[in-house]
Amino acid sequence: MSKPTLYGIASSRAFRSIWAAEELGLDYDHVPTSFRGDNQKPEFLAVNPNGRIPALVDGELQLFESMAINLYLTKTYGAGLIPEGAASEAKVLQWSVWGISEIEPLQMQIVVQQFFTPEDKRDAGIVARATEALARPLGVLDAALGESAYLLGDDFTIADLNVAGVMDLLSMLKFDFSQWSNVTRWLKACQGRASYSSAKAVGSGA
Question: In this structure, are residues 23 and 195 in contact, taking their beta carbons and an 8 Å threshold?
């Protein structure tokens, strides 16, 4: 039986899926695929015609979008990361979609300025406005985490991995989370997992 194959690198959205595979202890193949050319090669476009990473091939299944990949991997290879029941699965979807709709667009404005814009052309106003706007969703997350250790209760689930995976870019930016103590505590716990470190190593080709 062939192994699942994940395409991507750690310094991209693919990190979320690499992290999920590591958390699940999955036996998989990793194909380092960057967003600076590898993703436009014909062999990769045959896997994901969008030319985006990550992408997954598992048998006859070809899948793109990190959250879809993570839900598939969890339900197929490690159901323990998602509590049973329609309500719990809906909560996983809620928080996963929340991460990519409430956090990611704002953090990407900062990322573009800090990492992809020449220093003499950076717009400090964009960074300031995005940083200010992040206070609202981070407040929502902080309040949710005031009721339990993790998003769905006392145990780490794929919901936590997905949201923390989105927010990993904020950590790379050294974003100041200090005013949200529950978020700070939770993010430290998520990033303290062995799977987080191994995903960083695998995703960087180490």
Answer: yes
Q: Which two tokens stand for residue 24?
A: 């699940």
Residue 112 has pLDDT above 80, yes or no: yes
**Is residue 33 within 8 Å of 64, Cβ to Cβ?**
no
State pTM to two decimals: 0.94
Token pair 């995903």 in the structure block, residue: 199
Class of the domain covering 83-193: mainly alpha
Q: List, edge to edge, every strand of the sheet that includes 61-64.
A: 29-31, 5-7, 55-58, 61-64
> Which has the closest alpha carbon to 54: 27, 78, 90, 28?
28
Does the domain at 5-80+196-203 match CATH 3.40.30.10? Answer given as yes
Looking at the chain, the number of H-run helices and the number of E-run strands are 10, 4
Nearest to 4 by CA among 86, 68, 69: 69
Cα–Cα distances in Å, from 189 out to 1, 99, 110, 159? Answer: 35, 18, 24, 14
pLDDT, one tens digit per residue, over 162-181 is 999 999 999 999 999 999 99
Helix (H) or strand (E) holding 94: helix 86-98
* Domains of the chain by residue range: 5-80+196-203, 83-193
What tokens were used for 106? 């704002």
Tokens 């991209």 correspond to: 12
